[in-house]
Each structure stands twice: as C-alpha cells, then as structure tokens.
C-alpha cells in the first residue's frame, strides 16, 4: 500500500495539540497537594466537564476508527447500544451514585469491603487494575497499528507520543488534569466526527441525500434479519441485552467512570455530568455511523481510489490522509491521538487510585498525605511504563494474539464485578461468603461458556452478573453474615 506523506503542516498541527495537552498537565500540577487532590480534584470539577470526561474516557481511538469501518462494511445495528447506555443512566443515578457519594470513596471497591469483606474488595480492585494495564497496551498498540500504513511516523514514535505523554500529564495533573484534557479531547472527537462527515458530503456526487439513499438501497441501516433472536450472532435483541449489562458494568463497577461521580461538589453536579454524557452519546455516535455511510458512498462512486485488497478496518485514516487538505488531516489524526490518550490517562489515574486506596492504605500503616501522593504518582508512572513496554513488544514482535487473549480473559471479570455491586445494593440477605461463592460460580460459568459453546460474547457479561446475584442470594442462608445494623446503610432498603 502506498505510504502517504504526513506533511509539515500536519506535523505542526499535531505538535500544537500535543503541546497544549502537556501545558494542561503542567497548569494543574501546582494544585496537587494531596491524594485527595490527585484522585478527587478536591471536588472542584463542574458537572458538565465531568460529563464530557466520561464520554471521552469511554470512547477510545479504536472505537473512533472501528465504528465508521463497521458502518462502511456492515450496517448501523451497533448504534442501538449507544441508546441502551443512555437509558441506563437514570437507574445508575437513583440506585448507585448515592452510595458512592455518601461514602466519599476514593476507590469504588471500598464499597465492597464495607458491604462484604476485604476479599471482595481486593478481587474487584485487582481485576480492574490488571484489565486496565492490558487495556493501555492494547489501545496504544492498535492505534499505532492502524496509523502505520497511512502516515510516515514510525510505530515506536506513535507509541511514545501516546504513552509517554499520557504518563507525563497524568503524573503532573492528577484527575483534574485528566478531566480537563478529556474536555479538550472530547470536543476534538466530536468536532472531528462532524467535520469528516461534512467534508465527505462535499465530495460525494449528490451530497448528503445521495449518501443516505445509497445506504438505504444497500439495506445498511437496520436490516430486517437483524431483529431476529440469535444465541451466536450480534442481532439487535442480543445487542440490547449485551449493551445493557456492559453499560451497567461501566457505570457501576468500573473505577475510571465511577471516579467521575466524586470529583464534583454536589449530587446535583453529578447529575449534570450524567446528563451531559447522555447528550453527547445521543448525538456524536450518529455522526460516526454517518461517516461510515459517507465513506461507503464516496468509495462506491470512486472505487479506483481504493487500493486492491485494502483492509477496510483502516478506511477512516486512509480517507483522512489521502483526501483531506493538509492541516485538516493533522487535526483529525490529532483527534485519533486524543481518543487514545483520553482512555489511557483515565486508566492510569484510576489504576493509581485503586492501588493507593485498596492496597497501599488498606494493607499498610497510615501514611502522610505527601507520601501517599508520591506513591500515587509512582504507580501512575509504573502502570504507564508497563503499558508502553507491552505495546513496544507487540510492535517489535508483530504478535498480538497472546495479548488479545489476555485482554479478553481479564475482561470476562467485568460480569462478576458488576454482579458483586448489584448483589450488595439490592440483596439484603447476601453476605461475604455467599458473595465469594457467587464470584467463583460466575467465573467458572463464564469460562465454561466461553470454551464449550459458541454463545455470542455479549452474553458473557449477562451470565457473569446474574450468576453472582443468583448464587449469592441462594447460598446466603448457609453462612453467617454481618448484622443488619452493620450493612443497613450499604443496601437499597436503607436508601428508601
């Protein structure tokens, strides 16, 4: 495939973006006086900024590129998942956020110790940290891999720009720096999606009307066969169920999102964060799918512009580099960097929060705020370095299967983690030992389903969550738990 020169102007635009992100980290570094500042921003974050941060955190560079590719080659059915994520937010606000804010948690998994015991806290926290170290490596690697064919930047340089700069500004600015860079990056992602779509419209004969007509003619929106039930294919009913539990995991059991609930100064500001996120999720992903439809129309009309045997997974960066004006292309590539960095920086800070709260403080003696801040920053650097080293190894060896399998296996812990929170909040009779039995049964069930059946992967989270709740409920009478007074403020009954 032809390598397209990135060009001086595009380099300048990318450099300006990277410099601006670094300056944000430098600016907020002076506010990091304690671990509370580093992980909670002292409650100084407005709700709208926290909401944009949640949106940017959950949208990685792989999503930024894969959604248009999916719409280009397939259809729009995965758009359903975005709206399921919106519908779940009132449920999260009513039943989960009051616990997180009232308990003033640094790590979401502190709740699991208060409700059950330290074993459940450590299981969830370690699962989260391992998964996100793997996630950092995978996102960095796949971003570099996607850009290599289209820009004359070496893959190791891409890994350095994404990984090392994330480490630096997360190290300096803490969660406050992360959130305000997320705001910049979230705006960049949104503007880039709209800009790409508009520019393709001007290059398609017949414009926007023709784009949507061609997609309708090719039945690329919501094909009738996708409404059928299936155990193995990602049809619409499966997507609705799968995305419901995936969103539940993300918004109730994942530290990188839950941490955004405690950086504002009031419950009302947290509500604004969820509303802001919902507005962005309702609008921006539509443009990503529309970009895929526009690319389909453009390359159908201009098939000669597409190289033979082209890997359509890179259709978006290929169009950006080959068709967009210099400067604008640099801005879009910067947006891809932004999508990657917003996810990675959030992972770094949340890994640090989990280790500091769940391991360093919980299993050690009391430490001064200054020593805790030092450890928090050291963990940020360590996690980032592990991610960069792993990404570099993948680039050098050109082998991703092992890490993909690792990422998939650790990701299967999301269901059990979600089930633990659900069990704690909604099942008053559940206790620490019944929760442990539920987790063991859940992990075993998901691993068996994964290895012995062809069940669609969207069901893994469903099974993982429901088995914890069911087994935790059924086995509760077999074990002695905490007294009702000890758990009453950690269950739903107390909230009523």
From TrEMBL:
Any one Gene Ontology BP term: sodium ion transport
Main location: membrane
Ranges in a coiled coil: none
Topology with respect to the bilayer: Multi-pass membrane protein
Listed transmembrane segments: 6-28, 48-67, 79-101, 122-147, 153-175, 187-208, 228-246, 280-299, 319-339, 374-396, 408-427, 434-451, 457-479
Protein name from the UniProt record: Acetylneuraminate ABC transporter
InterPro entries to which the protein is assigned, alphabetical: Na/Glc_symporter_sf, Na/solute_symporter, Sodium:Solute_Symporter_SSF
UniProt keyword annotations, A-Z: Cell membrane, Ion transport, Membrane, Sodium, Sodium transport, Transmembrane, Transmembrane helix, Transport
Protein family: Belongs to the sodium:solute symporter (SSF) (TC 2.A.21) family.
Compartments where found: Cell membrane
GO MF term list: symporter activity
GO cellular component: plasma membrane
């Amino acid at each position: 495939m032809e390598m397209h020169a990135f060009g001086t102007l595009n380099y300048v635009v990318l450099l300006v973006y990277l410099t601006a992100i670094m300056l944000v980290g430098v600016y907020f570094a002076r506010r990091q006086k304690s671990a509370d500042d580093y992980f909670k921003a002292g409650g100084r974050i407005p709700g709208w900024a926290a909401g944009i941060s949640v949106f940017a955190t959950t949208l990685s560079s792989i999503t930024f590129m894969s959604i248009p590719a999916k719409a280009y080659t397939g259809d729009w059915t995965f758009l359903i998942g975005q709206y399921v994520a919106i519908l779940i937010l009132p449920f999260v606000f009513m039943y989960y956020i009051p616990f997180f804010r009232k308990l003033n948690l640094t790590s979401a998994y502190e709740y699991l110790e208060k409700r059950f015991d330290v074993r459940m806290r450590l299981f969830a926290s370690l699962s989260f940290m391992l998964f996100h170290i793997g996630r950092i490596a995978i996102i960095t690697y796949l971003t570099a891999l996607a850009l290599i064919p289209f820009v004359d930047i070496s893959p190791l340089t891409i890994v350095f720009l994404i990984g090392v700069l994330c480490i630096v500004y997360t190290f300096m600015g803490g969660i406050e720096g992360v959130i305000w860079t997320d705001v910049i990056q979230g705006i960049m992602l949104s503007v880039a999606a709209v800009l790409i779509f508009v520019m393709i419209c001007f290059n398609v004969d017949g414009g926007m009307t023709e784009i949507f007509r061609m997609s309708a003619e090719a039945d690329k929106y919501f094909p009738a066969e996708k409404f059928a039930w299936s155990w193995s294919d990602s049809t619409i009913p499966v997507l609705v169920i799968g995305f419901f539990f995936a969103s539940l995991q993300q918004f109730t059991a994942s530290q990188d999102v839950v941490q955004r609930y405690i950086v504002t100064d009031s419950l009302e500001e947290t509500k604004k964060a969820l509303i802001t996120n919902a507005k962005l999720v309702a609008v921006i992903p539509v443009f990503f799918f529309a970009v895929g439809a526009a690319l389909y129309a453009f390359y159908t009309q201009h098939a000669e512009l597409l190289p033979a045997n082209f890997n359509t997974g890179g259709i978006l960066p290929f169009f950006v580099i080959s068709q967009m004006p210099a400067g604008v292309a640099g801005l879009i590539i910067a947006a891809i960097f932004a999508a990657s960095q917003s996810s990675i920086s959030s992972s770094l800070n949340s890994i640090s929060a989990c280790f500091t709260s769940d391991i360093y403080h919980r299993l050690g003696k009391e430490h001064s705020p200054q020593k805790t801040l030092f450890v928090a920053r050291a963990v940020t650097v360590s996690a980032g370095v592990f991610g960069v080293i792993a990404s570099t190894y993948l680039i050098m060896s050109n082998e991703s299967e092992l890490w993909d399998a690792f990422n998939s296996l650790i990701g299967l812990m999301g269901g059990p983690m979600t089930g633990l929170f659900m069990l704690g909040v909604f099942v008053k009779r559940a206790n620490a030992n019944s929760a442990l039995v539920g987790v063991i049964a859940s992990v075993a069930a998901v691993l068996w389903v994964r290895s012995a059946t062809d069940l669609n992967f969207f069901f893994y989270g469903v099974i993982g969550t429901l088995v914890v709740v069911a087994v935790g409920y059924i086995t509760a009478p077999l074990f002695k738990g905490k007294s009702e007074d000890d758990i009453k403020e950690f269950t739903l009954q107390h909230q009523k």
